[in-house]
Amino acid sequence: MVTIDAALVRWSTDEAERAGRPLLVLLHGVGSHEGDLIGLAPYLPRDLAIASLRAPLPHGDGHSWYPLALPGSPEPGPVDEAAEAVLAWVDSLGDAHPSVALLGFSQGGSLTLQLLRHAPERFAWAAVLAGFVVPDDSEATSRRDAELARVRPDVFWGRGDVDAVIPLDAVQRTADWLAAHADVEETVYPGLAHGISQEELDDLNAFISRVTNPLAGLDPDTLDSDTRDTGTDVAAADRDAPDRAAAPAPAAPTATAPATNPDAPDAPATTDDPAVR
Questions:
Q1: 159 and 140 Cβ atoms separated by less than 8 Å
Q2: What predicted TM-score, i.e. pTM, was given to this entire model?
């Protein structure tokens, strides 16, 4: 049985400031750690309480959510165990947060979709960056998928068109599965390898604004002054904070600037590393 070590969770805010705020759970890639994706916090809406979890299994200098297997096609049992561990950690928070959302990169993205399978009504929305859905035709998963298709949660799926880490068959499987089970916003970024770009973060923020604020995107002139949408607000970054992913600088956005590497924390995600499975 695997568990999430609550003492190792990296938060974007102090404990006194978390209660009552929507929670966003970050799930890193294989070989990485809880200090990686938390570097994205300054680029996401500042009203969120963001928690970055450490995967329970050791992998090289980092950690993984489940053992590696055929690229893009892990054994579903260990993925289910990891999903149950994350759900147990979320449940341990009680009612401290009015809603919970998920953001996973690569292997963490596959776990994000597995969590939606396990608890489709538990999460307000989800974001999968350079991730994939785990193949599983078991009867139990078929029942879960049927329930997920009924709920159809909002999912943002972003990926690069030169990502050499996630196999093409896993990409096509994920595209078909998401279309059948979620309200998906899929965007492919030209020239982006296995990483995260500033353009993708901008699109993610627009997605969050749309799914969390029903007034987002409406003509401001049609709204009352008390309900006028001011758009997504991104927190100012502490550029010198240690152990953060090398996120793109807002002042010079680029569609190809990498932000995270799931297999070599704090290094650009531009290599064709086959370790993400």
A1: no
A2: 0.81
